[in-house]
Write a structure and sequence with these properties.
five-stranded antiparallel beta sheet, alpha+beta, six-stranded antiparallel beta sheet, 17 helices, elongated, single chain
Length: about 700
Amino acid sequence: MVDRGASALSFPSDWPAQPDPILALNRMGSFDWDLDSGRFHMDARAHEIFDLRPDEYDGDPAALAVRVPPAEAIRLDEMVSQAIKDGSENYGAYFRLRLRDGTLRWTHTQGYIRRDGTGRPRRIVGIVRDATDELHDLAARRDEPDLDDARREQTNVVQLTTAALAHARTVHDVIDVLKDTQGLTHLGATSLVMGLVEAGRIRLIAEGPEGSFVPGTLVTRIDEPYPMSEVVRTLTPRFIESPEEFAADYPVLWPHLTDLKITSAAYLPLIVQARPIGAMGLLYSDRRGFPPEDRNILVALGSSIAQSLQRAMFYEQEKDIAQGLQQAMLPRTIPSVAGADVAVRYRAATIGGSPGRDIGGDWYDLIPLPGGTPSGAGRVGAVIGDVQGHDTHAAAVMGQLRIVLRAYAAEGHTPATVMARASVFLHELDTDRFATCLYAEADLSTGVVQVVRAGHIDPLLRGLDGTCRRLRVPGGLPLGLSAEFGSLDYPVGTVELDPGHTLLLCTDGLVEQPGADLDDGMRALAALIAAGPEDVRRLADQLIEVAEERGGDDDVALLLLRRRGPDGPQAGSRLQQHVAPGDPEALSEARHMIRAAVRTWGARDRSDEIELVADELITNALMHTEGAAIVTLRVLTGTEHRLRVEVEDSSSALPRRREAGESGVSGRGLMLVDLLADEWGVEARGGGKCVWCEFVMPEQS
């Protein structure tokens, strides 16, 4: 088997308004049926086939009743209506016309239904042709009660093959159906060849059996003396009924087929929308001649194969575009992170065999954040998200959203601000899509992870002992919706990630199963993670393998982050938290961050002092200024390790130490700072100030 072909031929936008030379040469007429106005336009050849003069037909389909018998008209109307209702792209039928002299003529029509962006049918364009010679015995046999056994078997094979082709999604699937032992070989064919039309040439995509390839026929011109070239030129089947006829008509090809002992052959044009997309040949070694019934069966089979090939080529084109777009939108590389092992995976869903739906809006990202070392170590942002929909539009929205999230995070905004700004951005895009997202900002030197959730599923945490649990994180509305409804509040949850712990972020395609509860899915996933390997890459592979085996109609994005040491503090380690006035949760989160940092950075012996001083500085900033306070903790190294606490506010007024009276309730704050901190001071910061203090940390044993 050789490589598959490319796309089908393109169509001019005004077809068939302009006469086509190929159609004219093959005595085919064309029509254009405007379903909105009801006008049925025909070219000159179509008028001849219907035996109508131009002045006898004004474009009203009802005028054709003088030529189409009522029973035939009813059958055609029902067939076209059913094709429109089923969402079909093509239909084809044989019918009889009554000519001026009263005689009946067999005619064949093939139509292509054109729809607008909403799926509504707007036009039908197609061809009509005289089928008298092709079907001259058909009318006489219509009333026969039974077909003979051989004919019945051939018809059954065509039906089975057509049914099997309905499930073929790729060009290779189509070829496999045709070469299957239950396929065309039951028609008695010795060999099969098939080619697709590409840029004025025919490229062979299938030939069999093995060893039957004819040198020089891999790519042939349409004007060369080969039967497949001929049927593509003429759009007419070619039935070769004897070796003598084959040798006489195709002397270049015949010498290469003598070893196959070919006695006859049928070459069929593969026509879609009145254009040849390829050709197929069936070669026989045990038969001579093709009675009309056999020809009709093979022509019908060729039409079915052509439509299947077109669907397959469209599917492969859409799949290539989808996969390329998806890969372009996802991060090309994930940065290495000092202090952590990271693994990311993505699995595209396959939805109902529909072209273009092997793509979605799931994404992951890992973002080095300000405050770490130059290599990005220390602080990192992990993102997992899912844009609504499974199409290229969802992927395009995902790509834009990933970029702005990365930009907001890299600018140093707090997790809640990153999420709120991303929601506003998505709301202002010209799209009706929303997105769920989870953003985790991790300081790997302390293990403190701040998490915000926008309608997304919770993360999971696996401990050193292998146990895995779901982290219940407070959340806000999905991105886009929160801005639309004016609810941009994204509470921040804090998680402590000890060395050896693994944080798992994923999209719902890894959790949800049809008919299953989400909580049950989370418990099943937690059990799978607990039983999985410790190495995050192997664990990620195992989880994706399970998703592949399970199938499902949703994408899967997965990010695993496992914290490695070190146990001691590192220079440059930094944590930061915004505390808004009147927000008790933010104040509580800041205190939690301070406790975790003090413990992790080895200042446990001074934890009470540090917490008390930091709390006093935060409270002063909130009480005596109008804006928020920004709390920053960092480790300083030199001759001795120090922990530095900074509280910034928007006021330029410098604090002053006051003596408190016996019954005074204020004035003791800076006295407390001066008493407990090893050093403290005040720095001007733009339009505000920063009050800082430092604590000497004990040497690590």
